[in-house]
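Lecture notes, unit on protein representations.

Consider one protein chain, 225 amino acids long.
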Amino acid sequence: MPASDLAPISSHWDTAAESFDDEADHGLRDPQVRDAWGRRLAGWLPGSPCDILDLGCGTGSLTLLLAQWGHRPVGVDLSPRMIEQAAGKLSAAGFDIPLMVGDASDPPTAAHEPFDVILVRHLLWTLPAPEGALRRWLNLLRPDGRLVLVEGHWQTSANSTPYAPGSPELPWLGGVTAERLIEALEPLAVVDRHEQLTDPALWGRPIGDERYVVIAHRKPGGRSC
């Protein structure tokens, strides 16, 4: 998608970057929330260090966890300000991790090396063409790689008005149900796991909407068309 079409979305997240980590599940400042995400991620990722593409990495909280565990993460986010925050966070912890400003739905060429894991958290609802993004992401995986999608459905019906004025219409604005996401994945991938994420410790509070993880791998025999 032309950069000019994505500029309003980038600007929206630039504005949000300064206070982004105030949300418990964004900043992971609360040790209980951080530990809850750590336990979940440990069950979704390979046990040995691997190459992980963190798409829509935001301020880099999950990227930092991955680096601390010995994985080799690469972060991509559309917002320069988010990447700036992530770089500061990782540098302060002693890590030199590749971080790129770019469209996470169609990652920059520098992020086109094959990965063992592609990690996506609460990103699909922000994309003008989420199903096309799923295809591209699957094609960036190694043959035995896995796509880890942490998503949710926060509104009963998506408002057709974009959340960032001037941005393209977003078909999954308000989130996407697990059922709809799995339906979109089935022609492209094998879904290995679907798990509801209802534990309040993950979010720093009780939640009343749908939040979940879906883990999938590319179908045997080649690339996703």
